[in-house]
User: Fold this.
Amino acid sequence: MHWHLIGEGQGQYIKNSAIHDTYSRCVTVHGTNNVQVENNVTFNTVGHCFFLEDAVETGNQFVHNLGIMTKCHPTLPCIPTNLGPAGLGGGPGSSAAGQASKDVLIPSDNTASTFWITNPDNIYRDNVAAGSDQTGFWFALPEHPTGQFEGKEVSANTWPRRTPVREFSGNTAHSNFDGFMFDRGPKPDGTFSVGGSNYHFAFANPADTNSQPAESVFDNFTGYKNRHGAVWGRGELHLFKNLRVADNAVGFTHAASAVGRAAYTSRVVDSVFVGESDNIGNPTTPQEIAYGRSMPNELTDFPIRGYEYYDLRHDVENVTFVNFVPNETRDAGALSYLMYTSFGMSTENAVEGAKFVNAKRVSFPPVVRKWASDFGRQNAWRGATIHDRDGSVGGVPNSYIVLDNGIASDEAACEIKPEWGAAVCRGDFGHFGLGGNFGFGNAPIPDPVMLSRNGRRWEYTGQTTIRSGAEVRVETSRDSLSLTLREMDDRSWVIFELPGFSTAAGGAQKPSLAALRDAGETSYFSENGTLWVKLVVDNTAGLNVSVGTPGAGVSTVGAGPGGALDAGARLDVSRQIQVSSAPLNERDSRRE
Assistant:
């Protein structure tokens, strides 16, 4: 069934139909609005099945449809472009060769989905995507409509990535590779990147990025027995309500879109995550038979995780985690992080009202490159932090769960949890930066920095978490550093010892180390070839940190080129005496 450039299709529908054994798609809506696709069943079909073709289509209703066994090709295996464990070749360098194949209609058909959604201004209610070779529901949003409408006025005035989701409720995805994908939107030539290109940030007026930001709601989604993830999202103000996921390799992962602009990136509320349910599936491989149930990942020792924190700010509220239990075959954890993300995370990633039933609460695993979905440039997983607002995870209200690396963790203020690879800490925590590029873009990574505190040493490669009141020694061969503190309360402070450094641009010079320790403002003291710096947070000073440029993994709808993050304190230091210096509160952007 193919609606072809009808325009207004009010009153037209396909209902109560069966579509099976097709060689190209199931139902295509192309250049047509307001049609009904309801109560249909599809089976053994090729390419994207329920297909919104060019992203200009709006108001269409996909209700109570069942899509079974969507394939990439009638006889050939898929050559997908996916993110997955490096042990399966799905790490950052995963191949996009399948997009150039002559055996598919469009590049993304080699990563076929049952529901291909190119414009969010449509209704998807009570549908089921079952047994797709690759993806169940795929929101693949181009910047503007493509194909027949590329370059036309209607395309220039249509902004899928700035349009809120009209309705996505009651849908289910099971037995796919990825159950729900909101990322990897196509370019005009139909190709897409696994590295993130679906910069969805919706506005009341999609044509005006100064209009009121708009929330998108995903209600009552169920994802189970997906071989990789139940949910992968990218965008801002994405609210997931009544989410139910079970028996997936990973339950939920979400990336940011417009850095530093939205109140939050994603929020999951009133939901249930199950690691292993009583439904053992159909064990078929020798490993599964020995284990006693089907397994989501070909790597049988792949650690299953419920909720993965990733890019920037994400909240988890009133969520129950069940049956995340490590065993001799594989590790498991209810709360974790994307292994091993190189993109910036937030210390205000938060959780409250969490409940755990037969579940290891937190897993901050050591590096095993075999598991890496993302093991690149800046290793921002080292800054993994969860703000436990009510103590429902670690037992201490208003505490922070941090990586036990000796820099973020502190035995005087923390309860070390060796089985988690983490520590539950009291105090004010934020992120400490030393310059670089925050994981965005392709600039060379500068020389490493070694941090030491309380007898423990830690190699800094992008960012780390720090507690107010900490004192840290910084060793590096770099000639200059830009010290920053973010996401900390006013008056919080950290002291740094920098051997080989001599001067600072800005701040108040102090006559002694004792005077520096007593200072209530950002200050420095130099003696015997060592510079001491005390950064004191003032969130009213108007400081910020740039995080990249558009096209380098950063949205074009952020605040300013590439977006920026607020910095509570910043001071540039160097080995040489500087002839001139910029005032501390000058609102220039500095790359981190």
The chain has three domains: 1-185, 221-397, 433-574. Confidence is low (pLDDT under 50) at residues 437-442, 549-556, 558-562, 578-592. Residues 1-185 form one domain.
